[in-house]
Amino acid sequence: MRKLVLLGAGYGNMRILLRLLNKELPADLEITLIDRTPFHSLKTEFYALAAGTSPDSDVRVPLPTHERLHVVEGEIEEIQLEEKCVYLANGEAIRYDELVIGLGCEDNYHDVPGAEEFTHSIQTIGKSRETYKKLQGLGGGATVGIVGAGLSGIELASELRESRPDLKIKLFDRGPRILKDFPERLSNFVKDWFDKHEVEVISNSNITKVEENVLYNHEDKIPVDAVVWTAGIQPVRNVRAMDVEKERGRIVLNQYHQIPQYENVYVVGDIAALPFAPSAQLAEEQAEQIVRVLRLVWNNEPLPKEMPEIKLKGFMGSLGKKQGFAYLADRTVTGRIARLLKSGVLWMYKWHNG
């Protein structure tokens, strides 16, 4: 049997399974999926789990079942490309003919002293659960600092405001305005929501050090009762250890999403060096193309001279459960309609994935 191994049950590999596990699955193919959890986690919704506005069950989707899909639950220790083998922390070795690496990212602390030790995370479902316990365990009037005002930081701050109206929330933004790379109308809408709901946005911030219950913004010493870090990501440790070409820590690929020296190895999602910001949407678009390439390879057919250009539709974000914002096809959408759009996309995703 030909062995396809998928590392990580993220958005990219879930789309690959959705496309492969049908009547067109080659008769001689066996698929192994390796992940630390026995389910697919909706990483884009971890902010709601951490804030306490969505239960754990709402951010999980069951993995697909199929007679030729084997799911292995475990921690990946090492990826040996020359050996065509993946080693797990328990010592198990899993060999492959083709490999898709979709292991995702973890927090990037940018060498800020104390950041890793004294902040909380929403990068994994396990860490989001721990962050939920910390935030919901705070007393009334406690101060929460959220470092990083990208999409994750904005959504966490807004959901936490709805969950805990008694907390003081400080959102630290490195830029001069919220979502500075997008139209000012979008920035103003989000900032007005925060002003109305008493979330303090601290612009032009630079967190230089973190201590227990203390944040240093430039030289200012700010007392806090909890800190959540949403200020950047980097590929996970075992991807960073791989001896392949990288750009800003992400793996350089050819147009077929393969590692150039190892054309039987594909990379999907946040760890791929692509000219786009990492997102679930991007991972799914990559996955569609990877499936197309795999089918051509399995049928011994030539690959196209050029792959289609990946086109992203934009992004959507929530401001609590009633308001939201979106940037779609170069158009800004705000308010209730944007929130309904995001809820609808999430519902459709869950429906398609079982």
From TrEMBL:
Q: Mention any Pfam family matching this sequence.
A: Pyr_redox_2
Provide the E.C. number(s) assigned to this enzyme: 1.6.5.-
Q: Which InterPro entries match?
A: FAD/NAD-bd_sf (IPR036188), FAD/NAD-binding_dom (IPR023753), NADH-Q_oxidoreductase (IPR051169)
Which major enzyme category is it? Answer: oxidoreductase
Domain FAD/NAD(P)-binding, first and last residues per copy: 3-281
Q: Which UniProt keywords apply?
A: FAD, Flavoprotein, Oxidoreductase
Named from the GO MF annotations, one term is: oxidoreductase activity
Recorded hits in PANTHER family, A to Z, give:
64 KDA MITOCHONDRIAL NADH DEHYDROGENASE (EUROFUNG), APOPTOSIS-INDUCING FACTOR 1
Q: What is this protein called?
A: NAD(P)/FAD-dependent oxidoreductase
